[in-house]
Model the fold of this input.
Amino acid sequence: MSAQTPEVVLESRDSLGEVPVWCMRTSQLWWIDVRKPNIQSFDPSTGRHQVYPLKGRSVGSWALRARGGMILSMHDGVYGFDPVTGEFNRLLALEAEIDGHRLNDGRCDRLGRFWVGTMHDTVRQPTGSFYRIESDLKPKKIFGEVNIPNSTLFSPDDRLMYWADTPAGKIWVFDFDIDAGTISNRRVFRDFAGHPGLPDGSAIDVDGCVWNAEYGGSRIVRYTPAGKIDRVIELPVSQPTCCAFGGDQFDTLYITTASQKLSPEALANQPLAGHLLAIRPGVCGMPEPSFAG
Done:
């Protein structure tokens, strides 16, 4: 596997593949298809691919759960799911009363809190919000006026949080107090003006550099902690959605992609759209935190 040329590791044919996470318990990569909706696993040692269909209109993000299983951000709240038993139950209703809203991108910090954003599913306007969900499943609204929340990420030293609103074309960075669970001093980390695409999901490496999937831009871009472009990985698909480090050494960068909204002509020109890709970038990531609740 090359550090510059991505390879197809699985022909998953996702409509909107998203949120890849490496699970150390199973030594597998897990990710979702937002639209079908489902959660999937891939074992690189055997090539085994499993798909778990989910009830509901959509799934926006997910996280491993410290007690086992996982949590899922669905269209009407946060759910617990155990792929072994099939148990699926709503733990928290969140904006379920707002017609057309759903939960989207989310991630746990290293104290096990889940940070997740909401959005309108079809109308592109800033009616969503960003929340912190504690281990006792109590939500705290952090801010509103969110359009499409994405790229939630924490620096290796837990001093910074990154976050993007995709249509705004910006990734912001905040000062992060992990003990208090608070953010402050919002400023622009990277403005995508002049970029071919918009910011979608991200991963962070051990050097504190941000790897962002540029939706519509056919590339993964690595940014230094100062927000400068360090490396560009060109992709054979126009809609990369997210990336994550995985493997036993966290030295493989897995990339989810989308085929949604592509015309028949575009799909013919992008036969790998919707598949799971990977590269060996020459730098390692870190384990993903689990939800403490």
